[in-house]
Write a structure and sequence with these properties.
The complex is a heterodimer of chains A (376) and B (244).
Chain A lengths: L1 H16 L3 H6 L1 H12 L7 E7 L4 H12 L3 E7 L2 H9 L5 E5 L3 H8 L5 E4 L4 H29 L2 H5 L19 H32 L1 H6 L5 H29 L9 H24 L4 H17 L12 H7 L3 H15 L7 H21 L5
Parallel strand pairs in A: 1-2, 1-3
Antiparallel strand pairs in A: 3-4
Chain B lengths: L5 E10 L2 E11 L4 E6 L5 H8 L7 E6 L2 E2 L4 H7 E4 L11 H11 L4 H14 L15 H12 L6 E5 L7 H16 L3 E6 L2 H6 L2 E6 L2 E6 L1 H8 L4 H9 L5
Parallel strand pairs in B: 3-8, 3-9, 6-7, 7-8
Antiparallel strand pairs in B: 1-2, 1-4, 4-5, 9-10
The chains are: A alpha/beta (376), B alpha/beta (244).
């Protein structure tokens, strides 16, 4: 116990004395959380729309004014031929083109149906799909309005075919305002805690190798487990501290709701951190320089981050990739944080998460213990 | 007769095809200052690392303080102090913090740590810089402090790996005063060096050439044997026979 105390004390003295490290630990995550949460936004507004009006009737103008009035679109141009619309798409002046055919109003009144051409720049798939979705929403709104119009005017066909629309009632659970930040902030927080913990632990031991003090420690009677605990504990504390700062920012800056038990989040984080720190420790057992440790950590972190379910929903990945994410610790923590914070899930709901992460903790730390040698 | 405190018989270390230490044998008695000489790359550090339990020998036998280097490396570590070639104190900790840290992990009590710290700082004249970081001290001071920290827990043996590299002769002389004092207090000193004036200070020396011990005796006998006046000449004849 005393040995561990002296090791931990030494680590903290060194951490708080390291002028380069302090900002990385205490300021960078705050800045990253604030910037990333604001920047990483999947909501798409102000899509550029080019409107080709070959009909130029009151209905076609009504459609145009509907589009102009929506939040999703900015009318970037207005023309009368298909070529103009395609040109706008080519020159990137438009994200999508709506083309109203000649005789639009007439056919609509006569046949009660007409086609509109929608051309979308789908280089960015998400943007394209959303553009499509928004355009349909606007068009169906337009559709409803002219039908009501018909009805009011008592046109023949409207009487013979009374309108039955199906109205859909939306109810968004767990994130009622569909606030993007509510969804992103907890996830980004998880990434930051993971990165800080993984880097600090991997670099720390390798640094002792570089300056040679590890050799000095290896000839002392320090036991393996004392050394490892002495190394992990300070970063474990820092990780939880980091999480606390992040949660405060989430709560007071981003107003993320906190429905579930905060103790549960901390309990999971406490376990999870041992997994990430164990990974850093393991990496440090087979690297000799901080650069190597950094690159290897980064290699794994990039995979963990991109496949953690924050930037691409896991359900949208190919099946083989979904299987890989089962080995991704970040995935579990992101799920837990979202479930507990936003849904108010209890221990029973996340017991599998606990169990799996516990298994990984034992595995990776066991491996690190085995690999770490006082004797070469 | 008393058992030797360090005993090695045909101790060998191979790295692949390269034999770094080739079947060396020697015995060192309690309280001796044993100089372990050799040119760079002769295998001094490798041999020493096997004795202090950092590297496992490839073959041969060795015991340190009565403990076997294969099976009881951790017991050896309780009984030895070590000062490595590379600097072993934490540069970003202060003098006092370094002393406390090493005293602490060797299991000294708070009372002992306190008295040792005060005693050491006084002895080395570091009162003014006790709260300065190691990185701000001159090399000679660091080395004296590193040595004192290595014997803080009163080990039976202290291993010094080229402890005086890069410092001036006066500081080296002062460093050797500390070594004598430790030996006087019953600590066996095992020191590698390639400064031949330091070899003169040792009770006995061994000279390693290409992984083998080519000579082992006290300095005056060796000088007589080679019919020269200084250890320096002995060393040159041994290590570079073709040039001598």
């Amino acid at each position: 116990m005393r040995t561990i105390y002296f090791l931990v004390r030494k680590e903290f003295l060194q951490i708080f004395r390291n002028k380069g490290m302090l900002p990385i630990i205490f300021i960078m995550p705050v800045i990253q959380l604030v910037i990333l949460s604001n920047a990483a936004n999947f909501e798409i507004e102000n899509l550029k729309l080019y409107f080709v009006d070959k009909d130029q009737t009151s209905y076609s103008r009504l459609l145009r004014s509907k589009i102009e009035g929506s939040n999703y679109f900015v009318l970037s141009g207005y023309g009368f031929s298909t070529d103009e619309g395609e040109g706008a798409l080519d020159r990137d002046l438009a994200d999508l083109v709506i083309e109203v055919p000649r005789g639009f109003e007439r056919t609509l009144v006569r046949d009660n149906s007409e086609k509109i051409q929608l051309t979308i720049n789908a280089i960015d798939g998400t943007k394209g799909a959303l553009g499509n979705f928004y355009a349909l929403a606007v068009i169906s709104d337009f559709n409803r309005q002219i039908r009501e119009d018909f009805q009011a005017k008592g046109t023949v066909f409207a009487i013979s075919k009374p309108l039955n629309h199906i109205k859909i009632n939306y109810s968004n659970w767990f994130n009622p305002d569909l606030n993007y930040k509510t969804f992103m902030v907890p996830g980004i927080l998880v990434l930051l805690v993971t990165m800080i913990a993984a880097f600090l632990s991997a670099m720390n031991i390798v640094r002792e190798k570089e300056i040679g003090t590890i050799e000095q420690l290896n000839v002392t009677p320090i036991r393996k487990h004392q050394f490892i605990i002495g190394k992990l504990l300070p970063f474990w504390v820092l990780g939880l501290f980091e999480l606390s700062i992040g949660l405060l920012i989430a709560k007071f800056v981003f107003d993320v709701p906190f429905v579930g038990s905060i103790i549960l989040v901390y309990a999971f984080a406490a376990l999870y951190l041992f997994l990430v720190l164990g990974m850093g420790l393991f990496i440090s057992t087979f690297t000799e320089t901080q650069q190597q440790a950094m690159f290897i950590s980064w290699f794994f972190l990039v995979i963990f981050i991109l496949m953690g379910g924050l930037f691409t929903a896991i359900e949208n990945m190919p099946v083989w990739a979904q299987h890989i994410t089962l080995f991704n610790p970040v995935r579990y923590f992101i799920e837990v944080v979202r479930m507990v914070m936003l849904k108010g899930s209890g221990l029973a709901d996340i017991k599998w998460h606990f169990l799996i992460v516990l298994l990984y903790v034992i595995g990776i730390n066991g491996l690190a213990m085995f690999r770490y040698r006082k004797t070469v | 007769m008393e058992e030797p405190i360090i005993y090695a018989k045909d101790l060998t270390k191979k790295f692949g095809d390269f034999t770094a230490v080739d079947a060396i044998s020697f015995e060192i008695n309690r309280g001796e200052i044993f100089g372990f000489l050799g040119a760079n790359g002769a295998g001094k550090t490798t041999a020493m690392k096997m004795l202090i339990g950092l590297w496992k020998p490839t073959s041969g036998k060795a015991s340190v303080a009565g403990f076997d280097v294969y099976r009881e490396a951790e017991k050896i570590k309780k009984n030895i102090g070590y000062m490595s070639q590379r600097f072993s104190l934490y540069e970003d900790l202060t003098v006092v913090e370094n002393i406390q840290f090493y005293a602490g992990i060797y299991g000294l009590t708070n009372q002992q740590i306190k008295s040792k710290t005060t005693g050491l700082i006084e002895k080395l004249g570091l009162l003014e810089v006790r709260d300065s970081r190691i990185q701000s001290l001159p090399l000679g001071w660091k080395q004296k402090l590193a040595f004192s920290v290595a014997i803080l827990h009163d080990p039976k043996i202290v291993f010094l790996d080229e402890p005086t590299g890069g410092v001036d002769p006066i500081t080296r002389r002062q460093f050797w005063d500390l070594i004598y004092e430790a030996a006087h207090n019953g600590i066996t000193v095992f020191v590698t060096t390639h400064y031949m004036d330091e070899a003169e200070y040792c009770d006995r020396v061994s000279i390693m050439v290409n992984g083998r011990i080519e000579a082992l005796d006290n300095p005056s006998t060796l000088k007589k044997q080679f019919n020269v006046d200084t250890m320096h000449e002995v060393f040159v004849k041994m290590a570079r026979p073709q040039e001598a």
